[in-house]
Design brief:
Helices cover 20% and strands 27% of the residues. By secondary structure, it is α+β, with helices and mostly antiparallel strands.
């Protein structure tokens, strides 16, 4: 039995998340269906992260076991020939027999894009939250740092829908990096293939807003968070709370107290899904996890 590892990118706009749901289009469902057509086998496809409805991915990792003798390259080509254009296999490779995309993941990096310009470019609107109104970037950046470390994130988790599951689930999570970046959008003819936000439709270059060239420019803000694992809606609730900080409704210094309350009703609103992207999944040694990835980790998996 062979174990094949896939790195996937997808536009989650038309899907009800990663996990298979009866009667609903899901990423896991469409990938499994295509792989079963290719192998003529009944397969199980494991994903590293259960992205929610409307959430995108650039570095989702999956694995499946098969008796097929097709090469990884053949799997990549066959999958991309049969999958919808909104789902692509970026890489395919042989994995060890005991590799499991979810259970062996050491860290995941998510990015949330907030477009600050007056008018959203039509090639970006599916992948950003548009908020052109006054926001205090410095306060949001300061608040973001309070989420780093091993903490109880009960205040920033949505209910699973089952009281028993919620009681059994540990709310303790370890966040290695929580940071806001400012980026300057580029003209269409200058678009790069892979911007730091993982979605190639909008090329960007990072800046700190300190030079005359950048001051007052229409820009985009990206929240980057990297941790071992995340609770349901955790990143989107953090972003919603950071936006409240930016609007002056919550102080950056209030974040530790909000974490300490362990009450999901005290966090800010859940930010919309379209701005969120699973950028990468790491399977490195634990000692390497505190190292911050580059601003453009788009090739990693």
């Amino acid at each position: 039995m062979r174990n094949i590892k896939l790195t996937l990118a997808y536009d989650g706009s038309e899907f009800h998340g990663w996990q298979i749901q009866p009667g609903q289009p899901t990423i896991q469902g469409v990938v499994r269906e295509v792989l079963q057509r290719i192998t003529q086998e009944e397969l199980s496809v494991n994903g590293a992260g259960r992205t929610d409805a409307g959430v995108h991915a650039w570095g989702q990792v999956a694995n499946f076991k098969t008796q097929s003798q097709l090469s990884p390259w053949d799997f990549l080509r066959a999958c991309n020939a049969l999958l919808p254009p909104s789902v692509r296999v970026r890489t395919a490779e042989e994995a060890d027999a005991d590799f499991h995309a979810r259970w062996l993941a050491k860290a995941k990096t998510y990015q949330y894009r907030i477009y600050r310009g007056r008018v959203v470019p039509p090639f970006c609107w599916r992948y950003v939250l548009h908020d052109p109104y006054p926001l205090d970037f410095a306060a949001m950046a300061e608040a973001a740092r309070h989420f780093e470390g091993q903490r109880d994130f009960s205040s920033f988790a949505a209910s699973s829908g089952s009281e028993d599951v919620d009681q059994e689930r540990s709310p303790i999570r370890n966040v290695f990096r929580s940071q806001f970046l400012r980026v300057l959008t580029t003209a269409p003819e200058q678009y790069t293939q892979e911007g730091p936000h993982m979605m190639p439709e909008c090329g960007v270059r990072e800046h700190d807003g300190s030079t005359a060239e950048h001051q007052g420019a229409e820009d985009e803000w990206i929240y980057v968070v990297r941790g071992q694992s995340f609770l349901r809606n955790m990143v989107r609730k953090i972003v919603g709370t950071l936006l409240e900080v930016g609007r002056g409704r919550v102080a950056a210094s209030d974040i530790p107290a909000l974490l300490g309350r362990r009450d999901r009703t005290c966090s800010g609103p859940t930010a919309p899904p379209q701005g969120l992207c699973l950028a990468s999944v790491d399977y490195a040694n634990v000692a390497d996890l505190t190292k911050s990835p580059s601003a453009n980790p788009a090739g990693s998996s």
